[in-house]
Amino acid sequence: MLASLDRDDPTSLEIGSMSKAQAFFEAHLATLERAVDAGRTRDFWSPYPEVPSGRIYGETANAEGRAAFEATLGQRYELALTGIAGRVCEEVSPYGLELGITYEVPDIEGLIARMQAGMKAWRVAGADARAGVCLEILHRLNQRSFEMAYAVMHTTGQGFPMAFQAGGPHAQDRGLEAVAMAWSAMKQVPERASWTKPQGKHPALAMEKSYTIVPQGISLVVACATFPTWNTYPGLFASLVTGNPVIVKPHPGSVLPVAISVQIAQQVLAEAGFDPCLVSMVPDSAAAPITKTLAQHPAVKLIDFTGSSEFGNWLERNCPQAQVFTEKAGVNTLIIDSVDNLKAVCRNLAFSLSLYSGQMCTTPQNILIPRDGIDTDQGYLSFDAIATALADAVSRFLSNPEVQVNVLGALQNPATVQRIEESRGLGRVVLDSQPVEHPEFAGARMQTPLMLSVDAADREAYAQERFGPIAFLIATDSTEQSFDIAREVIAEKGAITLGVYSTSEAVLERAAELALEVKVALSCNLSGGVFVNQSAAFSDFHATGGNPAANACLTDLAFVSRRFVVVQNRHDVPAPVQE
Amino acid sequence: MLASLDRDDPTSLEIGSMSKAQAFFEAHLATLERAVDAGRTRDFWSPYPEVPSGRIYGETANAEGRAAFEATLGQRYELALTGIAGRVCEEVSPYGLELGITYEVPDIEGLIARMQAGMKAWRVAGADARAGVCLEILHRLNQRSFEMAYAVMHTTGQGFPMAFQAGGPHAQDRGLEAVAMAWSAMKQVPERASWTKPQGKHPALAMEKSYTIVPQGISLVVACATFPTWNTYPGLFASLVTGNPVIVKPHPGSVLPVAISVQIAQQVLAEAGFDPCLVSMVPDSAAAPITKTLAQHPAVKLIDFTGSSEFGNWLERNCPQAQVFTEKAGVNTLIIDSVDNLKAVCRNLAFSLSLYSGQMCTTPQNILIPRDGIDTDQGYLSFDAIATALADAVSRFLSNPEVQVNVLGALQNPATVQRIEESRGLGRVVLDSQPVEHPEFAGARMQTPLMLSVDAADREAYAQERFGPIAFLIATDSTEQSFDIAREVIAEKGAITLGVYSTSEAVLERAAELALEVKVALSCNLSGGVFVNQSAAFSDFHATGGNPAANACLTDLAFVSRRFVVVQNRHDVPAPVQE
After folding, report:
1. In CATH, what number is assigned to the domain containing residue A477?
2. DSSP character for A274?
3. Which residues, given as ranges, of chain A have pLDDT below 70?
4. Domain identity same for A73 and A170
5. Same domain, B295 and B149
6. Minimal-distance CA residue of chain A relative to B185
7. Which residues form the Aldehyde dehydrogenase domain (chains A, B) (predicted)?
8. How many CB atoms lie within 10 A of CB A254?
């Protein structure tokens, strides 16, 4: 019925758009089906190679990506929009580079009206066409992974290899995961049904019914400074594939990665005949933030947010017109009870504590160790010996300048530098934070991790998030008390990761119980090439949505199924002839 | 790991419970799988016969059901509970009978502590065992459908046939639908996975991972007076099968149907070795309501509510610790544009307007008709002629005393009687509401529908819910204006049903667009044995969750998937040997 209506409209782009979007869908269907399957089996899988190699991406890909990034510097960034309400230009690379890119701020009311107008064609296109467009966007994002890596590096401060992986392929994985989960959820609703209810000797009652997936409305995705793509794509793509136009509000310090993403989305939407403004960017400045205004706009029905607990809680409580998905602060925790491979454990944790200078929502902050020491493969070792072993491992790991540059990266926010300074007094310094010079960028904000030893009684010090490269080695009465502290702190403050090291099955079982109780993902005895702060799309659920660190999970059914409703339409039909 | 832990506990009932619950699961697995399939194809299906026939339920079933109901009158109703904080005894049948049943109010803190203690074994049992228990509860509810019918009749005022169907099999269908949808959602998460990530020439990274479905916490289901089972079972069973203990807070006027349901649930839980208090009833009185206290309890993480918009909106905004699912008031609407079978349409609408005296969340209230008349199979008829035809059809339909008793039922709440009186002045009376005598119950509150003719300009009269047997025939400038009014009223006040009558494909298409726009279920040209106020489990989505009448849908994926989180547990394993 709808299609025939639209065919009568000579201005409609929908016929053309359907075929283009349908072509995208067919081109990417195998990937989509594989992604759905991966989300069900949860084995490793990714269609987007994570290695920044010329053999995979093309020998000129790196140079072209860098050139594309550099071409944006000092320029106006071009995006489709309706009416210009202002301009922002605030980004400064944590490596010291002044980016000088100017972004236009769209007129909000004009943009929302345009998005609402464009939403119908996007809804009418259907789940397959929308999935096709989303997969094409992801495909092109993948092709521009080098450019994205430079953009992510120079906004977040991540080292280049991490900026490539986390900002590129891993973020694309998370986007694809959201598309697959949402597409699969939509496909669980049939487009139509014949309903025939027997009436004994009388003719059956019979109806034809149709079911339409209807988007909730405008979706607002509030991006964070440190992972402007990885934490943004799940909400963006889950909303978009279910039919909702998406406004991305970047962090003022990390606009470019969002702008590139939005630009690609707009190009694909336009090629497929849809309004490019269905995905739009609304930047703001630190001095004149706009998120609250957007979040309380009556047309905004979905909000995804990554950032502070304070603002996340405000969104959860003050936007009753919207479904609100938040990832906030937490206190990630490690419990060390006993180890049978101390060197490997220390190596593993040295990487975890150093990676991106602890500016990850998954980095462990609190390391609980019995004050009387623990059993190890090197014999019974005191708390101090373990603390020293960990500190030495971090020092040794970071003694290589290339590792410093690639793993630590730079501190995204000057406030983090300040926080390291202020935290020194919170405990005994086991490993002091040292400034690091970057061989290429003299202005880089780089520091090694600060490791502090504190007592279990020093709750004020460790029982809150201290974002950045700051770790507490906490001396407890026993593993028993370590469990109690982990339970209490996570129940109150939340956590995205919990790690445990123990050679005792009973302790591992208790850790499993604790994880279920406070609803946090658990990693046991990691001592190889997987780290507690890593979360792999299609396999790892990132955050549970069940403790104060986040009210949503990347990506479960609840994350996608709340973004659309089903509207049915039914009418009588003659009863089928009975045999 | 958990099972071995529990086996070490001699007080654990879990081994026995697992096997009993597992037996229930196996006994009902075919039904469960058929229910999952029905929810996907959405054809008619029900395992619970809706006909109150002795040939189906046993020749003595009616007499036994009646006797069981009568045996509760004037007695203390026995349920498992921990600590008695008070008693309530307020139910008066809308048919005039004083029920005199006393219910104990549990001590809230004691009950919640007990539920939290019982939750672990219920979670550990797993999705299959929980589904088995839920299906056994539903099976036993079905066996007690006659007893339930008398209980529903004498609390809600529904006529016996409707009390049997809506209070019994149809409610059981809705419960089973929720179990099936939730079980299917849980099954989309694997219990474990092997994760192997190739590392080129290096050994692969390999992990074993497990995923546990973890309930949100205590679930509060706030039942309504008019449909104490139909509107309660979806939330109750969706929460229970996903592992959450459930407190049902009945309406003070309709406690018995909830008490019977809770008693059966407790019996099955206890038989399977679980704490019966995992499903508990907390009754209150009109003078001392307890819902707000329960709803804001920090342990309460899920709230299902059916009732007024005022209270539903309060719950949505004032219980940030919980996921809140509401069904509230709305203004259901019919648009009459043209008909090709006036008699059949009038017969159909006469039933819709009379059924349970309009005390349904799906009953049409506003009937929009062009003031200049419409095309019919009897020629062009004026607004007044259509109004008269509808009124005559209602009168004719209700001229049969048996129809009066069975279809109208009694008015549940004296406030509804009052509302009819107060509404008479809102328009021109087309059909006046008349008192009806019940042949068996002299004290029955029964009245025929009130039909008022108003002008489109009389917004004050019709643009709000006037619950009960009150319908407005609204004279509009045109079908165009009918659409506008429907759009505006539904956008502002919400609706669960929208009906349209038209012989024009273009008008039906516009109605379909309107339904998508304001997110309401649409029924087109109903003129046979299906009525706009009927909603069939497994096929019809009841409410969309997308307009002000409800923020949730019975039963979509969002309704079930928000009731649990997934907690993962992963550890390294040696890389698989490469070939």
Report:
1. 3.40.309.10
2. S
3. 1-18, 578-579
4. yes
5. yes
6. A557
7. 107-512
8. 27
How many domains, in total, are found in chain B?
2
Name the residue among A40, A44, A189 with its Cβ closest to that of B195: A44
Q: Give the tens place of pLDDT for each residue, A482-497.
A: 999 999 999 999 999 9
Average of pLDDT values for B81-88? 93
Closest in B214, B316, B572 to A546, CB measured: B214
Residues of A in contact with B317 (CB under 8 A): 320
Judge contact between A430 and A473, C-beta under 8 A: yes
- In angstroms, the separation between the Cα of residue B209 and the nearest Cα of chain A is 9
CA of A538 vs chain B CAs: smallest distance (Å)? 10
Q: Which two structure tokens, joined as six digits, stand for A8?
A: 């009568």
In chain A, residues 101-130 whose CB comes closer than 8 Å to chain B: 123
Check whether the bond before A376 is cis (ω within 30° of 0): no
Question: Best interface-test mutation with A: which of B557, B561, B573 has the largest number of A CBs within 10 A?
Answer: B557
- Cβ within 8 Å of A, B 485-514: 505, 508-509, 512-513
pLDDT tens profile B93-108: 999 999 999 999 999 9
Q: Which of A42, A540, A561 sits opposite B556 (nearest CB)?
A: A561
Test A43 with B546 for CB contact under 8 angstroms.
Answer: no
Q: Check residues B572 and A577 and name the one with the higher pLDDT.
A: B572
pLDDT at A16: 46
Going across the sheet that includes B470-476, the strands are: A192-199, A202-215, A564-572, B521-524, B497-501, B333-336, B366-370, B470-476, B450-455, B428-431
> Which of A5, A211, A544 shows the shortest C-beta gap to B565?
A544
Domain that residue B97 falls in: 2-328+553-568
CA distance A89 to chain B (A): 37
Q: Using CA atoms, how far apart are residues A39 and A328, in angstroms rounded to an integer?
A: 24
| CA dist., res. A547 & res. A492, Å (int) | 8
Residues B221 and B359 in one domain: no
> Quick one: closest CA in B to A8, which residue?
B506
Complex-level ipTM: 0.95
**B257 in the same domain as B156:** yes
The candidate with the shortest Cα–Cα distance to B103, out of B297, B304, B258, B288, is B258
Residues A498 and A557 grouped into a single domain: no
Q: What pLDDT score does B345 carry?
A: 98
pLDDT of residue B4: 34
User: Do A545 and B525 make contact, defined as CB atoms within 8 angstroms?
Assistant: no
Question: Is A542 within a domain?
Answer: no
**Gyration radius of chain A over CA positions:** 25
> Both B358 and B488 in a single domain?
yes
**Cβ contact, residue pair A544, B527, below 8 Å:** no
Tell me the residue type at B557: L
- Please indicate, yes or no, if residue B460 is contained in any of the structural domains: yes
| Backbone phi and psi for residue B306, each to the nearest 5 degrees, phi listed first | -125, 125
CA-based nearest distance B188→chain A, Å: 6
pLDDT in tens, B396-429: 999 999 999 999 999 999 999 999 999 999 999 9
Q: What CATH number does residue A245 fall under?
A: 3.40.605.10
Contacts of B505 in chain A (CB under 8 A): 1
Q: Are residues B165 and B22 in the same domain?
A: yes
- Residues of B within 8 A of A196 (CB-CB) are 43-44
CB neighbour list of residue B484: distance below 8 Å, 6 or more residues apart: none
Residue B100 phi, psi (nearest 5): 65, 25
- % of chain B beyond a pLDDT of 70: 97
Decide if A171 is inside a domain: yes
Predicted confidence at residue B12, as pLDDT, reads: 41
- Is beta strand A374-376 parallel, antiparallel or unpaired with respect to A366-370? unpaired
Is residue A538 situated within a structural domain? no
Task: Determine whether the interchain pair A512/B565 forms a contact, defined as Cβ–Cβ distance below 8 Å.
Answer: no
Report the pLDDT value the prediction gives residue B579, as an integer from 0 to 100: 53
Nearest CA in chain B to A528: B572
